[in-house]
Write a sequence for this structure.
């Protein structure tokens, strides 16, 4: 029978409905660990339900929402065949943006597009998302897996997610609270996190570095280092906010330290940050040296070891550092706020 004579079907077009159903069955166990008591079951499975009466304890609840993806880090996960950490990256990118304004992440949904549904691979990705949600205290209430044959190769995939959080209106953090004299605290990143991977992949192409090659400075294979999951700060930021004295946060993602911190400053102040206060993790030196990347390009592309910044009242800095230490988050005084024009000076 020729191709023209074969029966026309969705499966013949490249979409395997049975594989999608199998993936849903495999991921059910993972979803159980990413729940909150406010989640309400929808028997049809068409929507995720969240009991909004939980918001009645707020005087004026503001809902916050954020959406993001993992970028080209997914290409390295695909090439290495490692799918259990990329979901944590997704959660971190979304919920830590919510935490910047002081919002508690409530629930999240995900979207996975792939060239071919391999149930075990999809279930492994979702298990990472569920693990990330559990770390963030956020419920994973639903998602979608879409098969795109002909648009994506069978082993290619991409993922994105969106989350909703809540913050009390008069407790919302942001630039309007920042004052001259405030301390700027850095929270260590776990590595590159999920930004700058297009430059990482370019360095791999031009340098001869191999993903499975051991790198002496790292003490492990390069690919393993590059897939280190993004640190999730949401609960740590909320704990700091509850302790008092926090003015603002800045999630250090694309654009680097200076550009992201500037978003959390009002026009009448500057932030003066000291490079001498920390040593970037070795992975950044490896990439810079092998790629011959100028320092300004490093500064505007990578987090360089600082994943989240907190601006706090000067008399709250010591207590904030102690709290972060107790929570297992390496942190230090990065600089201070002075009168200025909204600029960030990294010297």
């Amino acid at each position: 029978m020729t191709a023209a004579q074969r029966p026309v079907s969705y499966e013949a077009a490249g979409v395997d409905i049975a594989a999608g159903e199998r993936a849903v069955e495999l991921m059910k166990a993972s979803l159980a660990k990413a729940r909150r008591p406010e989640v309400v079951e929808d028997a049809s499975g068409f929507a995720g339900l969240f009991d909004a009466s939980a918001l009645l304890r707020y005087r004026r609840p503001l809902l916050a929402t954020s959406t993001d993806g993992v970028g080209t880090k997914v290409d390295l996960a695909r090439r290495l065949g490692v799918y259990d950490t990329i979901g944590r990256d997704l959660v971190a990118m979304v919920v830590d943006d919510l935490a910047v304004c002081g919002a508690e992440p409530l629930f999240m949904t995900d979207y996975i597009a792939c060239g071919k549904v391999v149930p075990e691979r999809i279930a492994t990705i979702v298990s990472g998302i569920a693990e990330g949600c559990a770390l963030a205290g956020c419920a994973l209430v639903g998602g979608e897996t879409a098969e795109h044959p002909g648009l994506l190769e069978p082993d290619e995939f991409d993922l994105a997610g969106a989350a909703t959080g809540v913050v009390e209106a008069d407790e919302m953090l942001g630039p309007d609270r920042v004052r001259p004299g405030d301390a700027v605290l850095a929270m260590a990143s776990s590595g590159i996190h999920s930004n700058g991977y297009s430059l990482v992949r370019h360095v791999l192409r031009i340098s001869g570095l191999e993903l499975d090659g051991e790198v002496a400075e790292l003490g492990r294979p390069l690919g393993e280092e590059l897939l280190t999951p993004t640190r999730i700060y949401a609960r740590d930021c909320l704990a700091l906010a509850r302790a008092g004295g926090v003015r603002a946060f800045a999630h250090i993602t694309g654009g680097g330290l200076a550009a992201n911190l500037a978003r959390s400053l009002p026009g009448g102040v500057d932030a003066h940050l000291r490079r001498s206060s920390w040593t970037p993790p070795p992975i950044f030196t490896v990439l810079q040296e092998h790629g011959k990347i100028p320092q300004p390009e490093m500064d505007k592309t990578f987090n360089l070891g600082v994943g989240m910044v907190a601006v706090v009242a000067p008399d709250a800095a010591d207590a904030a550092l102690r709290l972060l230490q107790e929570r297992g988050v390496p942190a230090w005084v990065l600089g201070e706020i002075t009168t200025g024009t909204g600029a960030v000076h990294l010297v």
Summary: The domain at 16-41+60-168 is CATH 3.30.1330.10 (60s Ribosomal Protein L30; Chain: A;). The first helix runs from residue 17 to 31. The two ends are 71 Å apart (CA to CA). The chain has a mean pLDDT of 93.
